[in-house]
Design goal:
alpha+beta, single chain
Length: 156
Amino acid sequence: MILNNAQITAKYGKPNKTGKGYLVYIDLPFPMIVAWNRKQTVKRIQCHYLIADRLKKALTDMLSHYGIERIKELQINVYGGCFNYRLMRGGTELSTHSYGIAIDLDPDRNLLHETSKTARFARPEYKPMIDIFYANGFINLGREKNYDWMHFQTAL
């Protein structure tokens, strides 16, 4: 289920520009490459404290399923961001990234308006990854709406 902003705010609180009061760091089970600077890697990221354990478990489950070499090959390790205080692209409401309850992966090959015809994450080899996110309480906008395949957000 895709939560609306009222439901998100009721559960996760009102976001702020710094994330103070609700963001925590999680250590990643595998290093990620920063999408906008491929020479930079991250070993931990910030997310809302209420999703931290589930997000880390989803990533750990992916590592168990695929192994690090396959994760790199599929570019599941390309980090597109988690916390980013901003409006939804083209919208007037805050993005779920403002709350730290969403993560983008491999954004260059799963563009915002791409459909299942061209988005990489729509391919069969990524189905286990998406299923793992769902098993951990996240949804994928690609699966739900057939656009923004890079985007995974909490459904709880």
